[in-house]
Amino acid sequence: MVAFCMNRVSSGVIIIFAALSSFSVGQNTCPKQKVLLHNVSPQYYLDKGERIEVWAKMIPEAWQDNRLIGGVSDPSLLLFNMTSVQASTAFKEVITRNVTAAITSKPNINQSRASHKSEFFIQAFSEDASCEALRVATNISIGCPPYRHIQPRRLTFLGCNELLSRSQVVNTSFEHENEYDVHKYGCPQQVKIDEPFVPEFDLYDKDQYVRAVTANMIMWEENGRSSYKYSLTMREAGCLKPAQSWKKMSNNFLLSLNESWTRENYQSCFEAGDATTRGDLDAQYQIVNSTGGSRLKWTSPGLYVFNVRVVDPEFSYCDLVTQFAVLVQEPPPGGFVIPTFLVLGCSCVSIFIILIAMYLTVEYCIECT
Ligand SMILES: *[C@@H]1O[C@H](CO)[C@@H](O)[C@H](O)[C@H]1NC(C)=O
Ligand SMILES: *[C@@H]1O[C@H](CO)[C@@H](O)[C@H](O)[C@H]1NC(C)=O
Ligand SMILES: *[C@@H]1O[C@H](CO)[C@@H](O)[C@H](O)[C@H]1NC(C)=O
Ligand SMILES: *[C@@H]1O[C@H](CO)[C@@H](O)[C@H](O)[C@H]1NC(C)=O
Ligand SMILES: *[C@@H]1O[C@H](CO)[C@@H](O)[C@H](O)[C@H]1NC(C)=O
Ligand SMILES: *[C@@H]1O[C@H](CO)[C@@H](O)[C@H](O)[C@H]1NC(C)=O
Ligand SMILES: *[C@@H]1O[C@H](CO)[C@@H](O)[C@H](O)[C@H]1NC(C)=O
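Above: query sequence and 2-acetamido-2-deoxy-beta-D-glucopyranose SMILES. Below: predicted holo structure tokens.
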């Protein structure tokens, strides 16, 4: 019995799992396969850095071939891996084969190509091409999945009316406090004024959680409030050249802030360009991410509504934009804070007085009787 497997094919054209040579597959007799089980959906989207895994399992008829082959219609778009497991069944003469395929997009795909779609298939192998083989196929589109969006972590729409109507919402960016639209932004996240802040987001397909957003983002306040700054300078963030900033990016007055700084024109400051781009590294570094680095620092309390965009082009094919609100609160005035030792001291004294009172009462009562 001879068996061989080609598990890795870099160009992703075709993989054959050869069968046992004792299976007699005649030139003119088509192999008889009973069923091809699989978990392949008719359609997939592949975003940046993602991988699709599917399996297909062949159950042949007795003594029949169980070979499966995989392939793609456009090898310049997709790469795939297949691994295979054979198993015998209750019927000794039926040997099943389960292949698992891992599919990724090729690095450095030509972005200007119109269609980023390729078919991937797994089918029963047959030496005679005219045989009709069991087959499963799917279309894989490389690009932004529909309904993909980002959402602030722990977003909630309930129970914040009271919070918003409390008198401490003094400095809102709205003319009137009741202009704040809970249905649009959800409840604002609460932060203390001396707490450096970085918003956290998750990626969703409709309501389905996909992964956390770790990539670089930019923010701008919806109503132009500017009483906040960033905690790091470009130098402290580790920039090798001056980073992009709102001042630099918004100097084209024909574009709104929403259009002026995007994934398309984003440049990282961590890749040193030529020596001529040296300049001032002491300005604020206005790009934030969840894993560290620059944070927001507040200079005035109140309600802020931010727009946020993921600018890192390596994170997703989608333009990920959303809004969120932050309620920045001042700590309660110092006078209200009662020192711990005072509380403990008072409790000790009161317990002592109670004990004495009880003792005297008991003494007195004994004397009475
Ligand atoms: C194929 O499998 C190997 C090891 O299991 C893995 O390192 C590689 O990334 C896989 N390739 C694809 C296209 O999934
Ligand atoms: C085929 O293999 C995959 C991965 O090992 C497994 O998840 C799947 O359940 C198997 N299918 C069948 C029908 O056994
Ligand atoms: C990308 O595709 C376009 C259109 O098909 C073609 O004109 C261009 O030369 C390609 N670029 C590269 C780097 O292959
Ligand atoms: C993939 O898409 C093409 C047309 O875009 C269609 O003809 C084909 O049937 C589709 N394949 C599957 C498996 O849905
Ligand atoms: C409101 O914000 C402004 C600056 O935006 C600040 O000067 C002022 O002190 C703030 N008022 C209160 C009551 O916090
Ligand atoms: C910004 O542009 C995106 C599309 O690029 C759009 O979905 C979003 O609603 C815009 N936001 C604002 C505040 O205009
Ligand atoms: C997050 O930002 C810091 C600098 O503020 C940077 O060093 C780091 O590489 C960034 N992380 C990601 C995932 O881009």
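Helices lie at 161-165, 182-185, 234-237, 246-249, 257-260, 340-368.
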